[in-house]
Amino acid sequence: MLSPGESGSRSCDVLIVEDDVVQCEEMASFLARSGLQVVTANNAAQAQRIVASVTPRVALLDYNLPDITGVELAGALRAALPETAILMMSGRIDGLSEQTLAKLGITVFLNKPLPLGPLRQAVLKLVRAVPVDQSVQRRQPGWLAAGVGGTRR
Fold first, then answer.
1. By three-state DSSP, how is residue 106 classified?
2. Would the CA dihedral through 128, 104, 3, 90 be positive or negative?
3. Which run of H or of E encompasses 47?
């Protein structure tokens, strides 16, 4: 796991951590066509190696990863990258509570399958809200509207 202050010196717009390689490449390609600089990882260990040298403005994490959960990865990323906006995505979220997401400062939860248009809109909004190499105030966590995300009951 990363320690606070271990994040990288270069920045990118988006880090996508998704173990489904095809889905990961599809999201990365779609976001890159919008002019975003995208870096991908297919597991948490690879993501942690990436953020040792690259600081993403937005991290899009799958909840079900092969090595640890997206929540565990979010905790490590939050400690190392306090200003990075974190979005969690999953088609299956057994045992994941709204309180857990809020505690980690997860900005948005997305239900899979993801409609790419609203995903792009959410990511672009968050990227623009996190200036490169500047301190920013903490964003309020929220849920993506338009039927993509939703409140948990």
1. strand
2. negative
3. helix 44-51
Please give the torsion angle defined by the CA atoms of residues 61, 123, 108 and 58, in that order, rounded to the nearest 10 degrees.
50
pTM, rounded to two decimals: 0.76
> Each residue of 28-87: pLDDT tens digit?
999 999 999 999 999 999 999 999 999 999 999 999 899 999 989 999 999 999 999 999
Between CA 43 and CA 61 the distance in angstroms is: 10
The answer to whether 71 and 100 are in contact (CB under 8 A) is: yes
The answer to whether 87 touches 106, Cβ cutoff 8 Å, is yes
Spatial contact of 9 and 55, defined as CB atoms under 8 Å apart: yes
For residue 20, what are the CA distances in angstroms to 17, 28, 82, 89?
Answer: 9, 12, 27, 12
Instruction: Name all domains of the chain by residue range, CATH numbers in brackets.
Output: 10-129 (3.40.50.2300)
Q: In this predicted structure, what is the pLDDT of residue 143? A: 43
